[in-house]
Amino acid sequence: MNPGKKIYFLSDFHLGSPDHASSLVREKRIVEFLEEIRKDAAVIFIVGDMFDFWYEYRTVVPRGYVRLLGKLAEITDSGIPLHFFVGNHDMWMKDYFQKELNIPVYFEPHAFEFNNKKFWVGHGDGLGPGDHGYKMMKKIFRNPICQWLFGILPPYMGMGLANYLSRRSRHVTGAADDKFYGEENEWLITYCKDMLKQQHYDYLVFGHRHLPIDFTLKGGSRYINLGDWIRYYTYAVFDGDQLTLTTRYPELENKIVRH
Ligand SMILES: [Mn+2]
């Protein structure tokens, strides 16, 4: 990494939700933030659930989000690499991001190394113990035949069904998520501990939890949860030496769980 350059991580914008007007307010905030970090970004990671629902038909993509998509194109065109990890709300990506935006798309967690620091990055859904209902659903969602069947539905039906399910899933996992369950009960902490038994990482960075968490594990590795851009506007920034989890809006700083 060049001195003065930084690596940014953010996730869980859920654009499209809960309605067009409030999504647009968030989208503009995200675009403004991206424009600002462009000045010193070496790499940008967007770690899933960019959209509340996304499905790429063979020749058509969902309408909307032009400000964000345009900004992403501008960033990669200017030579700043951007990595995207699919989340549980936007895993139905094919090759639009790669072809149109020059953004690699990851469907599984992936390792990176910068300045001798090891990062393990992923959205975080379906990892760790429990959540068997979702793990089964994920198999169906990821199944090529199921995806093909969904794709032959007329979009007004497919998108309608998907938006309904997407909202229902948030209803199920919603409000209770805003408190920290403790080291033993946070399933991504359990997952991180298992990962660290096999290999050392300095930072294990996830989204999905919708609660910003900076948790130091035994041995000094840190589990970072990126929070979201709905309630927290949080992001992690690596300056080449240190990683910091912070928020765009200082008044939200005390919402970050640090342990
Ligand atoms: Mn999410």
TrEMBL record:
Q: Which Pfam families match?
A: Metallophos
Xref: InterPro entries: Calcineurin-like_PHP, LpxH-like, Metallo-depent_PP-like
- The question of whether Hydrolase is a record keyword is answered with yes
GO molecular function terms listed in the Swiss-Prot or TrEMBL record: metal ion binding; UDP-2,3-diacylglucosamine hydrolase activity
Query: What UniProt keywords are attached to this protein's entry?
Result: Cell inner membrane, Cell membrane, Hydrolase, Manganese, Membrane, Metal-binding
Q: Which GO terms describe its biological process?
A: lipid A biosynthetic process
Q: Write down the superkingdom of origin.
A: Bacteria
Listed PANTHER family = UDP-2,3-DIACYLGLUCOSAMINE HYDROLASE, UDP-2,3-DIACYLGLUCOSAMINE HYDROLASE-RELATED
Q: What is this protein called?
A: UDP-2,3-diacylglucosamine hydrolase
* Source species of the chain: Niastella yeongjuensis
